[in-house]
Amino acid sequence: IDPVIEINKNFNSILSYIVSVFFSKGIDETLSYEIAMLPGMTQLFSLLKIEEALKYGDYDAIVLDMPASGEALRYLYFPKLAGSIGRKLTGFTGVFSGFAKMFQPFSGFSTSQSNLPPSNVLLNELDLLSRLESLSKSITDSSITSLRLVANPDTFSIENAKRALMSANLYGINVDLVIINKIMPKESSDSYFANWSRFQNNKVEEAKSNFYPLPIREAKLYDRELRGIDMLRENASLIFENEDSSNIFYTGKVFEFVQEGSGLRMKLKVPFTDKDDFEIIRYGEQLSIKVRGPTGYVINVIPLPAATIGMKLERSKLVKDELDIFFER
């Protein structure tokens, strides 16, 4: 998928109109394009190829490789956010350029009837909202769609994957599998590589706790770049063995959020413990959970959603294998 081609095909008229408005206000044309391209838009139009493939039905399975970011996922909710506003298409190019309304008192952007965008722009946006609505229904249907997280056995990569897991759960997308990639062989006689191998092995074990109860699969580090049909088949065989890779290996939410009055209840499954032998500490946008396992304590650092900003950790309790945490304003 070439995202530039997809943007030109799906978004060009809307993008050009937004740029023309910025340009008319004295903003450099190149900078206008940068401002008009909202974060995650290139990934969004890659996602829209799924909707296109589903419409024509000519596929066995659809696999889309995406960066570990929740940026594009939030656009799946634009049709719901737009509601009747998006479909009436009043104001400044509907929802996609609605962020400009925030700057109206300062910038002089006008949303009067005389400044409505051309009809082709409005029709393009209406079609885009309709396609996003269809795509959202398909991606959040756990019987046909799942998200798989791929992480290297290092702290940075695993933390990114945990943030992606949190975003997917918030957006209602099923995550069925985590693959820890590029694991070095354990039998190295070189002390340098042996140390790295031990470090990676610890990270793999840590990931099993961090992503509980999701299944974890491991993929080795090859001595050359993984490319070509033969190598891909070998890698798939090592990861999935005799199983069908298109199976859905897990259904359910790892994190669950329930709004209760002015507070927010967070539920998550924790491994190895069935009693209140745990410790929870909040550090800014993260939650550190320490639970006792059969071989000692296991620590899991969990990213928190933006909704908890301004909230304090009020109380927590363990019910069977599920940790119940309540945040209050």
Textual characterization of the structure:
With 329 residues, the chain is an alpha+beta fold. The protein folds into 3 domains: 131 residues, no CATH class; 94 residues, P-loop containing nucleotide triphosphate hydrolases (Rossmann fold, 3-Layer(aba) Sandwich); 74 residues, Immunoglobulin-like. The strands form 3 sheets. It has a 4-stranded antiparallel beta sheet. Strands 1-2-3 form a 3-stranded parallel beta sheet, sandwiched between helices. Helix 2 packs across helix 3. The chain is globular, with a radius of gyration of 23 Å.
Supply database-style keywords.
329 residues; 39% helix; 3 domains; Rossmann fold; 10 strands; four-stranded antiparallel β-sheet; three-stranded parallel β-sheet; Immunoglobulin-like; alpha+beta; 10 helices
Strand content: 15-25%
Largest sheet: 4 strands, antiparallel
Number of helices: 10
Query: Percent helix among the residues?
Result: 25-40%
- Distance between the first and last residues' Cα: 44 Å
Question: How large, in whole angstroms, is the Cα Rg?
Answer: 23 Å
Average of the residue pLDDT scores: 80
Kindly give the count of domains.
3
Please state the oligomeric state of the protein chains shown: single chain
Record the strand order, biggest sheet: 4-5-10-9
Low-confidence stretches: 83-114
Q: What would the principal axes of the Cα set say about the shape?
A: globular
Q: Helix/strand-derived class?
A: alpha+beta
String of helices and strands: HHHHHHHEHEHEHEEEEEEE
Q: Let me know the number of strands.
A: 10
